[in-house]
Amino acid sequence: MMEKMLMKSFAFLVIAASVAPAVQAQLPPASPVLTPEETLLVVSGEGQSRRVPDVAMFSAGVVTQGKTGGEALAANATRMDDVVKALKRAGIADRDIQTSALSLQPQYSNPEQEAQIRARMTREPYVAPVTPQPPRIIGYEARNNVQVRVRKLGEMGRIIDTLVSAGANQVDGPSFTLDEPKATLDEARVEAVKEARSRAELYARAAGLRISRILSISEGGGYYPQPIFVTGRMAGAPPAPPPPPSPVAPGELTLGATVSVQFALTR
After folding, report:
1. Is 68 strand, coil or helix?
2. 10 Å Cβ neighbour count for 18?
3. Three-class secondary structure assignment of 110-125
């Protein structure tokens, strides 16, 4: 009997030991420890850094219709192949061309709506059918889009016009960014910490206190408020680009960072 009790006790200790680390890992971080003379102050700071973007991203694709899914896909594949070849001839590297969407969707008829349109065109009274007719598939639509990264922004307008001439009938974008944003973000982080420190000193002076130490610093998300210019042509529109390239203005890019800082204040 004694041996069984010892075995059960040993098993309990083993289970408890294995569970303890998992429980500890789920505990929230410890609150900052303040001395009786200290007061906690939490402030946030925001920093920004501006640069002229050096990379543009846009989406280009082809939308085709057909009576069957195979017909729509075949037409789409032929035109999309021409678009990708045009991108490569324009100097876009393989690593900067990525398929972003490929879809095939049925197109449905709307008998009631068609009857209403027919009545308006013939000036005859519209009579709603006693038994509504269900929609039926009348064809298929295929879409294929690629995400394109342009590293020479001066070529952006010419590239877009070249794509439309090659058969692209859907162009969206561009959005602008930096190829190497780390240094710019670091500038924003330094500015955010300086602002948090300055704000903390202001509060401390107003309260008749001073900063004794920093307890913690946490970073929020950065952001990319950027202008987005849409240069697109709807499916079915004739590909007729103007003689000059489509104008594209990259403007200025702002990268930012926010920090939350805990300060200890004393007299």
Report:
1. coil
2. 9
3. CHHHHHHHHHHHHCCC
CB atoms within 10 A of CB 160: 26
Mean pLDDT by 10 residues, the chain (267 residues): 46 42 46 87 96 94 96 96 95 96 92 78 78 85 97 91 93 92 95 97 97 94 50 44 70 93 96
* Whole-angstrom distance, CA of residue 30 vs CA of residue 262: 13
Helix (H) or strand (E) run with residue 212 in it: strand 210-219
- What is the pairing mode between strands 39-51 and 253-266? antiparallel
pTM, two decimal places: 0.65
**Do residues 261 and 211 lie in contact, with contact meaning Cβ atoms separated by under 8 Å?**
no
Taking each helix axis as running N to C, give the angle between helix 156-166 and helix 69-89, from 0 to 180 degrees, rounded to the nearest 10. Answer: 150
Give the other-Cβ count within 10 Å of 173's Cβ. Answer: 21
Give the angle 212-218-222 at the CA atoms, nearest 5°: 135
| Residue 1: DSSP 8-state | -
Q: Do residues 167 and 62 make contact, with C-beta atoms less than 8 angstroms apart?
A: yes
